[in-house]
Each structure stands twice: as structure tokens, then as C-alpha cells.
Amino acid sequence: MAFLREARGHGIRSGFTIPIDAAFGRKASVTFSSMKESVADDLVVDPYTALSVGAFLDSFVDLLKIRDVSDAVACPLTPVQLECLSWTAEGKANQDVAILCGVTRRAVESQLHHVRQRLDVLTTCQAVAVAVRSGWL
Q1: For a disulfide at 22, which of 10, 26, 67, 82, Cβ 3.0-4.6 Å?
Q2: C-alpha–C-alpha distance, residues 38 and 46, integer Å
């Protein structure tokens, strides 16, 4: 109730919030508010647009956490390797990653093998952890 009183104090009369489930159990939301008494019935937000806005905001907040951009380590992975690792981090099996990337399962396995070599780790799980800690995923 205090939240609603505070919102009204800022002139917010109506709106809606779109929850966004992000990677690794993180949650986000995008809120659209209005000073009008009700949100127009014809106001429709494309879910893909809302997801894109949420992803942009999440990335922006992550960038704010890096105090000095020169402290960020350059990613040694190719875009293809990063894409395979990203889908793997989302829980996709190699066959699923292959379909999503339009390549063979063997090509995905090869890319992930090179990822492990470049990051000097033993498992793909370790590679995901390194990539997340480094801000590449």
C-alpha cells in the first residue's frame, strides 16, 4: 500500500509491469506508467520488444558495475564460440544448440572443445562460469 501511495505522490495513476526471466535465475521487470487514470485498452506492448528492452537494461546495469572499462578482459572467443557457449549456459543440449545455430552437433562439440582450450578449463561448465564472471555472457 505504501508503494501505491508513493507512486501517486509522483503523479503515477496507472501502468503495468512485465516480468522478465533472465539467465541464471536472475529476474527483471519493465514497468510502463502513466499519469492517466487508466492505461488505454489499445495500448499493446509486443512481448519481443519488451524482452529486448529488458535485455538492454540488464546489460546496461551490468556495464555500470564495471567501474573502469580498462579493467574488463577482452573476450578471447569467436562470435560462434560465444554463441554456442551462451546457448549451453541456457541449458541447451549440443543437438539443440546445433539446430539453433544451423550447424551439426559435431560442429558444436568442436566449438565447445576450442572454448575449453582457449579458456584453459576442463569442463564446459567451468567455461560458462569463466565467461559469466568475465562479463562475456
Answers
A1: 26
A2: 19
